[in-house]
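Per reviewer request, we include the raw input and output of the structure prediction for the construct analysed in the revised manuscript.
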Amino acid sequence: MNDKQIIDLYFSRSEQSIKETKIKYSSFCRKIAYNILSNNEDTDEFENDTYLKIWNSIPPNNPENFKAYIGKITRNIALDIWKKNHTQKRNAGIEILFSEMENILSVPQTDTEYELEEITPIINKWLLTLSKKEQALFILRYWQGESVKSIAKQWNTSSNKLSGKLFRLRNNLKQALEKEGIFL
């Protein structure tokens, strides 16, 4: 079933929409959640929350890119679970990602939502200046939470080479933000 048909099922409030979403995107969602949580028990916890959030948001939302929409919901739920677990000192699955990006996107806690709304369009514009491969690398690492080792294996390259490329991308992003007047 294609994405448009699944979305139509949500609009008709058919429970089949959840089943079809799970069939088509369960492994995609679980991979994103596991990359953030590094824990199968927590990965299981997120799945029902994800489908409920999709059910409650369509309608009124009618996403153009259903996979990206689901990925964003999955990522946000997994990050919420990570924050809850991190507060309880149970899990440190995404600490490495946060530490890699902290020098670039270290937003004061009180201004987080405002700052991120301002920064997001700049990051999106910056991503468009990158090659398709660099875009994919950045998204795999910092949006989907893929490990450097996993990406290196997929791309037939060394982890060190990939780490260097990610370092250069982070510095490039920092310069792009500073050029736009964002100093974090």
